[in-house]
Design a protein that fits this description.
By secondary structure, this protein is of the alpha+beta class. A hairpin with a 2-residue loop joins strand 13 and strand 14. The protein is rod-shaped.
């Protein structure tokens, strides 16, 4: 307890400990309120005990007349008995009458004295009833002016009220009632009452006066610690959570051939904020103060319908004009599996799992493809352009990339570090794969198309915070010096062995590069941030030349056709 109050423990409430100088002095001898001659039967000097006699009175022998002791009756003098006085002497008040008057006045004085003494004693008794000092509170209840017993009774009533007050928790027009006693709430106020009582009732007079002065400046407050069943409170909060919870409803989207369309609007759900609700409940139990409005949070659906038109959040295209029919057909086949594909929040998309094995029976054709640092023919050649186009599009849509591989050599349809190579392998798990996850709060809808010029991936949904672009940064680059010669048996390109070889395929140079994901403000187009997401190494490709194989007579004579020259 602060506030500068000196509380002496060890005394029971209502018990005062006398200190030096605090005891009322005892009177010795007669009572200080007694008047001389009242209630005393002591004989006055020169007077017989008992107060009655024949000697010393007015000569008429009237019993009961009192005179001061040691005086005799006056001598009656006749006229002329004293020289110089010729007038007769006036008769004075008779001793009997004087005695009566004196007794009457004495009686009146005695009555007045008794009344004054009675009032004084009453005042002293009233002031001696000890009470709580002013500005003293226990559990928020002011006890000033109450006796100890009345203060205890008041606190008992307050405890009954606090523990059995009914509170109504409300949410969206519904309510749930509870009382602190429902959770076993209880507290003992006696110790706090005793501490409050000690203020001004223990210590020296100087200490008590100082406590009273301190209370004028600042109140003294004592609060009991309340206990309750915490498990019961948590169970009640769980019941409230289940009662309040409303599941969100996703917008119903119709995936058409060209774009998604919302046909049914979404609805937000609702859930109780458990932590805040429990804090409010405990505050009501402990103090009776707190919010009775249950705190709730909205639950957003995975598919929202802020408006009835889905927005394009990303679009990426790659050139296919260099490809033949079969190769371009493979690109279109692979991307067709993603046309109308939906990736919901938290979902993962696995390219090889979606496309499946590349076989003739499933519609794939044989076409050129990379095999290490060379181009060869294989079933499904061109599928890597489908995975690359998808890779760049989902990055723009702010998807999280879980797996991606670059090609062994650079490709012609994107810059270094913008590619994503795939290989199905034996079962779709042992080859190169491309995998991403939707970590946003909204679903994305993927649409694809391939024509004679471009392979395109368009993503619809809720626009991310920024506009993202994948930027290629080439660190170093060298032209390929590797050569390989292929015989031109047709003689269309190079006929004679003495003719200069003709370039058939130019090999890609080697390089090292980085991929950076750059974020731009949608409105101002200004760069907001950039993040490096890859570092890639590409080896040099093979330069392939046509060489003539015929001599001057038209015979095939070149045994070195197809020979490879090592280079970098």
């Amino acid at each position: 307890m602060t506030n500068g109050y000196n509380m002496q423990n060890g005394n029971r409430p209502g018990q005062r400990r006398a200190s030096a100088g605090s005891r009322r002095p005892a009177y010795r001898g007669a009572s200080p309120y007694a008047r001389p001659g009242m209630g005393s039967r002591s004989a006055a000097p020169g007077r017989p005990a008992g107060g009655r006699g024949t000697a010393g009175y007015d000569g008429r022998g009237q019993a009961g007349a009192r005179r001061p002791a040691g005086r005799t009756a006056p001598v009656r003098r006749g006229a002329g008995s004293r020289p110089g006085y010729g007038q007769p002497r006036r008769r004075g008040i008779s001793p009997k009458l004087r005695t009566g008057l004196l007794l009457g006045l004495a009686a009146i004085a005695l009555v007045a004295l008794c009344i004054g003494v009675a009032r004084t004693v009453g005042d002293l008794r009233a002031s001696s009833v000890e009470r709580f000092l002013d500005n003293v509170y226990v559990n928020g209840v002011k006890l000033s002016g109450y006796t100890y017993e009345d203060g205890c009774a008041l606190m008992a009533q307050d405890k009954e009220r606090r523990l059995n007050t009914t509170y109504a928790l409300t949410c969206n027009g519904r309510s749930w009632d509870f009382k602190p006693a429902d959770f076993g709430a209880d507290y003992d106020y006696q110790q706090e009452v005793d501490l409050a009582w000690n203020l001004g009732h223990v210590g020296s007079r100087a200490d008590r006066r100082q406590v009273a002065e301190n209370l004028k400046a600042a109140p003294a407050e004592f609060n009991s610690e309340i206990s309750y069943d915490e498990e019961a409170v948590e169970a009640f909060v769980d019941e409230l959570y289940d009662a309040v919870y409303v599941a969100p409803v996703d917008a119903e989207v119709a995936v058409t051939a060209t774009r998604p369309e919302i046909v049914t609007a979404s609805k937000n759900g609702l859930e109780l904020d458990r932590e805040r609700a429990q804090d409010n409940l405990v505050a009501l139990i402990e103090t009776g103060k707190g919010s009775t409005e249950l705190p709730v949070e909205p639950l957003l659906p995975a598919v929202t319908s802020d408006n009835m038109e889905m927005k394009v959040v990303a679009k990426f295209s790659t050139d296919v004009t260099f490809r033949g029919h079969d190769s371009r057909s493979n690109v279109a086949m692979a991307l067709s599996f993603f046309n109308g594909y939906v990736v919901y929040p938290g979902d993962t998309c696995d390219f090889n799992a979606v496309v499946g094995p590349r076989t003739i029976g499933r519609g794939f054709a044989e076409a050129p493809e990379y095999a290490g640092n060379e181009k060869v023919k294989g079933v499904g050649g061109g599928v890597c352009q489908a995975s690359t186009t998808l890779y760049d599009a989902v990055l723009m849509a702010n998807m999280t990339i879980l797996e991606r591989h670059n090609h062994k050599m650079t490709v012609s349809y994107v810059e270094p570090s913008q590619d994503a190579a795939v290989e199905y392998g034996t079962n779709g798990t042992d080859g190169k794969n491309f995998v991403f996850r939707n970590d946003t709060d909204h679903a994305i809808y993927i649409y694809t198309s391939v024509d004679r010029e471009f392979a395109t991936v368009t993503i619809y949904g809720t626009r991310p915070e920024y506009h993202y672009q994948l930027e290629s940064v080439v660190l170093d680059e060298q032209k390929s010096t590797r050569k390989r010669y292929e015989p031109d048996y047709s003689g269309k390109e190079v006929y004679y062995i003495t003719d200069k070889p003709k370039l058939k395929i130019e090999g890609h140079g080697s390089c090292h590069s980085e991929g950076w994901l750059v974020a731009y403000d949608w409105d101002t187009k200004e760069e907001v941030s950039r993040e490096q997401i890859s570092y890639d190494s590409y080896v040099a490709g093979m330069n392939v030349y046509w060489r003539g194989v015929h001599d001057e007579k038209g015979n095939v004579v070149d045994p070195e056709a197809g020979k490879e020259e090592k280079g970098t």
